[in-house]
Amino acid sequence: MKTKLSSPSQPLARRVSTILGIALLSSALAGIWAAEPVQVTDLMTKELANVPGKEVTMLSVQYAPGAADPVHRHNAAAFVYVLEGSIVMQMKGGKKMTLHPGQTFYEDPHGVHLVGKNASDTVPAKFLVFLIKEKDAPVLVPVTE
């Protein structure tokens, strides 16, 4: 996981806070996905130079056969691009969609992601996610509805 922790000019308290935040997020994500065979890899996070306070995070997600995400939200605009296999996606109030390699999916910043799963019980699936979000905001927020 590559994350810019701080620069030497940042106060020590902010650097410690950032480190603790990353540790808590990593722990939370591990807990959420520990029960499911879902592998999430943080590929890059980059501040948007012309959009103060915003950043883009790029993730690679691999679903083992039959794997699924818990119900969640991102509080970010999320753009999904399927690389391998097939995935099923559904936002609250939307239709369930099965996506194949080369297809895309969009999640609204205020939307709740009800279904995110591998469409196959025998073949793995892999996709990229680009999140446009507030700087230092969590990547995923569990929803219990």
CATH architecture: Sandwich
Helical proportion, percent range: 10-25%
How many β-strand runs?
Answer: 10
According to CATH, what is the topology?
Jelly Rolls
Assembly of the depicted chains: single chain
Number of discrete domains: 1
Gross morphology is globular
From the alpha carbons, calculate the radius of gyration and give it in angstroms. 16 Å
Look at the helices and sheets and give the structural class.
alpha+beta
**CATH H-level superfamily:** Jelly Rolls
Order of helices and strands: HEEEEEEEEEE
Please give the count of helices: 1
Q: What is the CATH class name?
A: Mainly Beta
Largest sheet: 5 strands, antiparallel
Describe the structure.
The protein starts with 11 loop residues before the first helix and ends with a strand. The chain has one helix spanning 12-34, and strands at residues 38-47, 54-63, 72-73, 77-84, 87-91, 97-99, 104-107, 113-118, 125-134, 141-142. The protein has a five-stranded antiparallel β-sheet with strand order 1-2-9-4-7, with no helix packed on it. It is globular, with a radius of gyration of 16 Å. The longest helix has 23 residues, at 12-34. The protein has one domain: Jelly Rolls (Sandwich). The chain is an alpha+beta fold and 145 residues long. Mean pLDDT is 83; it is low at 23-35.
Task: Please specify the SSE layout and strand pairing.
Blueprint: H1 12-34, E1 38-47, E2 54-63, E3 72-73, E4 77-84, E5 87-91, E6 97-99, E7 104-107, E8 113-118, E9 125-134, E10 141-142
Antiparallel strand pairs: 1-2, 2-9, 3-10, 4-7, 4-9, 5-6, 5-8
